Fold:
Amino acid sequence: MPPQGQYSQGSGSPGADFPGYGQPDTDELARRQPGTGPFARLPGSPARQPPARLIAPGGRHRRPVPASLPEGAPALVLAVPNAEQDGLTGPTADIATVLRVDNPALDVRTARIDHGGRGDPSGIRAVLADAAARRPAGAPSAVVVPQRVAPHPATIRALREAIAASGANARIGEVFNTNALLAEALHHRLADAGLARADRVRMFSITTSADGIILATVGGEEAVGTASITAFLLAARLALPVLAASLDAKPTVEEAAAQLEGMGVTRIALAPCVIGPEADSVAIGEAAAAVGAKCSAPLGAHGNVVKLISLAYGRVLGQIETLGSS
Structure:
């Protein structure tokens, strides 16, 4: 296991690229192969087709973006609430890549929420202005989706100010109704790190190194309130106590750890309920180390995160089309 306070990485197996889907059950597949098992093909009977390849769901399985976008459809701008230039790499770049592959006709861009900064081509104002310049005057030019999975009023205010300053006809697509999808994604990340049982359906007896979970959020008390619902759903999935805490407000990770210890929990795991760039990775590691907890990786470009961003874009696009037809 990794040192306390550090992210645990997956095993590096081929299935690691698709967390939560895992590897095929080779024994089960063997029983399904033609010519084997109690239902083997008899001589002269029609040949069976080979089994389909097992692949992670993609494309229409995880996106509500229309298969055929109208010409000049608004760009999807992934707005990163990280003042550093490297905030556009890592998870944000991975998410953008998946969105482009799944939606070849969609103009996907990334931008920094520059909070009033000027002269930065990767800043949100410059990206919005460029998107507007490539579309008919006055037409909806962009749907901006902040890279957050919890409410953060300051980020929304900054985006509204940037849109007004750019003069672009852009709208903000916030991530809503995230709790069930986030609980599943967090479960996958914990399982990747060996901190939670990976298969709850088959009820395998798998030893894990945690008997209590803390969801770490950023964005203040409102974010903790939203994450508390996710924590409840994750607790139901894992049959373990799960509490939400904040890296920048109350309740703190230390307070949540004390509460878990009062419940008899002796092995705590920290699950960052963040995509990645909106939180300080050093602060996450320090919070885990402070309570003696092991830590799973942030959500990153998990398929459910991509789905939530697609849902946010599709919802705004539907509103634009409804207004245009009225």
